[in-house]
Amino acid sequence: MKNQPLLEVKDLKVHFFTERGRITAVDGISFHVEKGEIVGVVGESGCGKSVTSQAILRLFDEKHTAQYEGEIRFKGKDMIKIPTSEMEHIRGNEISIIFQDPLSSLNPVFTIGYQIVEAILLHQNVSKKEAYVKAIDLLRLTGIPAPEKRVHEYPHQLSGGMRQRAMIAMTLACQPSLLIADEPTTALDVTIQAQILDLILNLNKKHEMGVIFITHDLGVVAEICNRVVVMYLGQVVEEADTQTLFANPCHPYTKGLLKSIPQLDGDRSQKLHVIEGMVPTLHNIPVGCRFAPRCPYADDLCREHSPDMKEHTEQHKVRCWHFDKIALDEEESYVSYG
Length: 338
Fold this sequence. Notes:
Blueprint: E1 7-18, E2 21-33, E3 38-42, H1 49-56, E4 66-74, E5 77-78, H2 84-90, E6 95-98, H3 102-105, H4 112-123, H5 128-141, H6 147-150, H7 160-171, E7 178-182, H8 190-207, E8 210-215, H9 218-224, E9 227-232, E10 235-241, H10 242-247, H11 252-259, H12 300-304, E11 310-313, E12 316-318
Parallel strand pairs: 3-8, 3-9, 6-7, 7-8
Antiparallel strand pairs: 1-2, 1-4, 4-5, 9-10, 10-12, 11-12
């Protein structure tokens, strides 16, 4: 019997109540994360990546602004149905999240050490002195120099890379089973980005921690992820293991994303590929396939009827009427995998 996934999202929908009525930012997405696996979630800004990550932790105001449908099963338990008090135990303890901008996530009036200690004391039965020792050890683990000094400094006294490491130290305070990294390297320079990625990879291997890595950088996905979930306008449009997705993308959106990546050994006289058109707003979602207005393969079937996710192979799913005709030409090459 196959073991149940660490996290299993089934037909998740996230609705928001706005002045213009109810909108659905995430519309029926499904995916899973195994123990020790890194799953990349990619797509353009506004596709629903961050909403999905925050919905997993139920961070939206359910009384006034948001409503969830579907299932979010963590270790077999549906987190949509459990009481808020139980969610408070899971957040930061069993599931942690790293946000894109650590400066906006850290409290500017408290030291880094205080904030890490607070997280430890909230979930673990240790003394304040023991928590401070652990905070210093966590800062050391993330590669921050002179952690005994940094633990007493405020967020504004640290560089962007150090702040992100401090955020990672905080998320690891309780050794979570699942780490959600929401574009954690976007604002960092290339050198620091590589260090943060190495850190996440090492922690993933050392603790067998499941990771959801949300990004728009397909180069990073190729480097660290085991599987990839591609999102467009609130839906999953393709899912496959990383090697398969890069070698044989079957959705025209995925194909367009890969063709848009500049190649170091490519013809510099050629212009970069551009996906034509703009992403529609959530108030104006097209009838039929959501990508049809921008798709070079679209026909009347696409414009009139919305496709379901279909299996191209056992481990490769695609939301497209014509995915069997869009398989990548063997002569084309995109980002190198591995």
